[in-house]
Batch of 2 targets.
Target 1
Amino acid sequence: MENEMLLDIKGLQVWYKVYGGFLKVLDGVDFYIRKGERVGLVGETGCGKTTTMKSILRILPERDSKIPQGEILFHNTDILRMHAADLHRVRSKGIAMIFQDPTAALNPVFTIGAQLQAVIRTALDVKRKKDQTTVKKTAIKALKEVSLPDQERLLGNYAIQLSGGMRQRVCIAMAITTPRDLLIADEPGTSLDVTIQDQILRLLKELVEKTSTSIILITHSLGVAREMTDRIYVMYAGNMVEMTRSRELFRKPLHPYTQGLLASIPKLTGGGVARGIPGQIPDYLNPPIGCRYHPRCPKVMEVCSLRKPRFYEVDSDHEVACFLYEQ
Amino acid sequence: MDKEILQIQDLKKYFKVGKNKRGPIYVRAVDGVSLSIREGETMGLVGESGSGKSTIAYTVIGMYRPTEGQILFKGNNIGMEANRRSMSLKKDMQIVFQDPGSSLNPKQSIRQLLELPLHIHRHLTRPEIEGAVVDLLQRVELSPEYMYKMPQGIGGGEKQMVAIARALAAEPSFIVLDEPTSALDVSVQAKIINKLMDLQKEMNLTYLFITHDLSLMRNVASRIAIMYLGKVCELANAVEFFENPLHPYTRMLLSSVPAVSDEEEALKPKKILSSGEIPSPVNIPSGCSFHLRCPEKNGYCKNEDPGMVELSPGHWVRCHKFTYEPTAGENPIPLEDISS
Amino acid sequence: MPDNRTVSLTNNYNGKLSGWSRFWTGFKKNWYHYSRNKLSVVGLAIVLLVILLAIFAPLVTPYPAHAGPYVDYPNAGQPPSAKFWLGTDPIGRDIFTRIIFSFRGALLMSMLVLAIAVPPGLILGLLAGYYNGTIIDTIIMRITDIFLSVPPLVLALAIAAVLKPNLINAMIAVTVMWWPWYTRLVYGMASSVRNDYFVIAAELNGASRFYILFREILPNCLSPVFTKMALDVGWVILIGASLSFVGLGEQPPTPALGQMVSDGARYMPELWWMTIFPALAIVFVILGFNLMGDGIRDMLSASR
């Protein structure tokens, strides 16, 4: 029996307005996550993963962005067409985001305590001063959950007094103060050292297992996705190109991009470094017609420059957007 | 016979950051490092933040003056800042920086950028420069029209290629690479690494390659030194390093590398839980600087800094597991130090 | 297979196009960023209008002679009418004409002041930033601080009062107190750019100090300087008006905005047009330069 569908993105298109026209970044993104799942979103710089996540919470720059098409169904309601009150509820109680750079995500002029408590107050709809003690208790509990010592004192500290790893933990604490349906973690720990990143990822894993919160883990590191997720989406130039269970992706990568990517990763076992993928990511002002990967694809066919491939199901839970697998 | 082209002897670099009652406070970024690099090889320097790896690179290239210790390049002492070095030395030793965004002047075109080393080191005249620029660009597989582009108009990987071309323009024999691909995507990294390896073979270059990415090191370096808080913990050739890691810190690092295949999983040491933060280089713990986080410490680790011991030819470790052979109840007997 | 390296409009491709088409592409792109904010376009329109009026003053004003020695007592103190659009001043001269002519002095003054004050200020800031942390830095910046600690208007008044009151001396006074702002501005940028890797790369290659200062560091400090210069035109005009308000600037009969405001002040509120219109003109001009300055800042920060 499958768990219920939590978030379902259908055919999302996002354009940015720039000098010269529109950057057609997202070109029909399909993505879903069920309750309790851990899904990874893997892609390189510029593929649109952050844009997708920002669209979910509707934090794209208003003036310069446009969503010509698409639906983002959260508990079966379209976030893109929600009114302000419902959207506010989604942001304060439903979905929490952990940003990539913890230093930029924390306001340097307020104490950690002030920021944590602000989040809690919004989530719990607390208005009266009387409930201050509950708020403070919740804050301390959240800091304990992320294994930060000396919580009382920490509430009075400023972000600049903490190390990078501690700041990242604070950001995670802010996301789990109240139970949420979905966590979106954007490259957690990327800006930190490897051993610290390892700690942070393990912490996230524990937290998610404990509360069976769903989590979308965005990363450019396939290794991290492999260890931390049940299912992985591979993204290229504004489209999802492959999706399957984590271990399966590494044993049987189907899309030529996934294969090229895996081959380019240097391995601990040696064997030299592969040649990489020739070419560059497409110019979003004038993206290629048809499959956006076809200019770089070693297995390109004629149809690839004419039409866009859909997600074809190859196995149970293994889908690829490539004409090589069209039935 | 592999000639040693660079010799670092007991290098120390301290930065003064203030004073307290007991005297001046120093950041001991590099605290007694000895290394030598042979001609044509790639020496990998691995470590986390605060380990001192970048400081060593910057001292070798002349951005800093050593506080103590010596650096010999082709037999000559080069332990001084770049503006006191000879032009021929500056020509012979080049560096590629980590962040492609800030290593290229945003107000200069690629051509102007490459003109500088061509003009200064190779004394080319105006008409000759254009041909040389095209040649350099082609060598890093960029088409000649890149000459007119500005750094903002090209991607990160291409910027690094330009940075490499700039280093090559002087026709050096030694290049310091400070995390050249850390800021880039994996597919772009692969291209650059391959190009670097090709260039090394073609032009008989020697590399000092700094990174925090162990998997990359495995495939790039011929010898690897791993650093923690200003000292080298372990030094070995690449294959030996990964098949037989000895120092607990090495094993801890290796166990935190995310694997992409079952074979890699099998090769990694079992997961060693790293606890605690990396201490700051202002406040280096006593004795062996790793003892606070070490899962395998013994009674000596807090008080005494272990020296480097050569356990098998070319494989050196700095760890009390190997310097003392404690027998129950008796005083510990130090193993013979083959070096210090 | 389509060529992936399409030359798009966003690409900074200044390739082997001819000089003119390269300029035009750059201009179009900069205009796009500048005009995103409509107010900046309004500012630019105002500035262009003021400049054109100043240049062609004798041709566009109804009574060019009124800007010189001219007296017409019968028409003194006339309210705005079809004959005298903004009314006349206490000795019968057309206010509209005099305002337009006063733009000449105002613009001339601000442009000369900036042309003279900015280069030394820039260079001192550049040197102080390059030698950041050394005694050269300390000397330069402490001298700058001293100048900055004197209230600007007081300093200008003091200098102008010591010298003979005329336009040149007013300019000298303002110039002397203007350069330190640029030193401080450039100092901040230069000290951070100085440590950027591309500067270090040039130094490691043995580039000369001159090259480092003027070809590597300076071009990266100029954006805020240009923005400030645009805004400063308005400020200098204001300071100049303050000086002429107390009689230290353009001497009669040459019209100056501040002087016109002060002349008409004693006739307030009955003959209000004699003060209000010159004051409004000051506001109008400064507003234009401010809005244009905003636009320049947007334009310069957009593509970086």
Note: Confidence is low (pLDDT under 50) at residues 327-340 of chain B.
Target 2
Amino acid sequence: MNAQFKKGVLELCVLSLIARRDRYGYELVEEISRNFEIAEGTIYPLLRRLTQDGLCTAYLKESDEGPPRKYYRLTPAGLEVQRKLLAEWEQFVRGVENMVKEDRA
Amino acid sequence: MTKAQYLAELEMRLGALGKEEREELLADYEAHFEYGRAAGKTDEEIARRLGPPQLVAREILYQLSVDRARSQPTLRRIAGAVFAGIGLGVIQVLALLVPFLCGLLVLAGLFAASVYLMASPVLLLIQDGWTAKFFRMLPLLAGLVGIGLILWVAAVKGTSLLRKWMLRILQTNVESIRRKLT
């Protein structure tokens, strides 16, 4: 997969994951890494940018094991962006499917 | 690579960041190591999956240069992002420079013509002195000064237009850098 493309999709994935429930950094990284082959270290700068852009907020929560966890919560603006990206993604997938299927037929 | 080595390498490469920002990010990576250890992973494995600290640092620094230009588009910051963009091949240097230089030339011409026209009575005086001819030519001279004033106003207006236009082109490019980098 093209690196540039993967980055755009990555943003959609992160926003979608925290849209379902608040998650902390390590949890997000694990979840994404399970599905994609990615340099995990590049997810933290993305989380920082999303926070700075006001698409999510971060808060600390104590944990029984290890250091406090930094949780990320989606904001209304983040939800809006997530919907927009999802719509773009679905349109893209439909486009690809059209071509691939016609090719087969 | 151990946790300490990884964090030290990352910290060294993030010198351009503010202290607070750097510490915040390093805390993220430190916590990442801690959670990985708690999950039974070795430092070696955690570091390998994070990716080389050089790569991670580059990602963070690109992000930073674009963020700075976006939040406060001062000329210096725009220039920083533009050069980062040129380095990445995002910005077409000629597409930016050619209209800018042409605009500057036209404006310089306008200003020069305007100054010349407005100064024409004085120039004539210097050339011929107080002669009857000078008084005969007064209406013409007044006309020339008037045209000079109009050109001046046009040149001032043009300058502000050119500046706005250049800012917009840069803005578009900064946006495209952002998209390219994130």
Note: Chain B is about 85% helix and 0% strand.
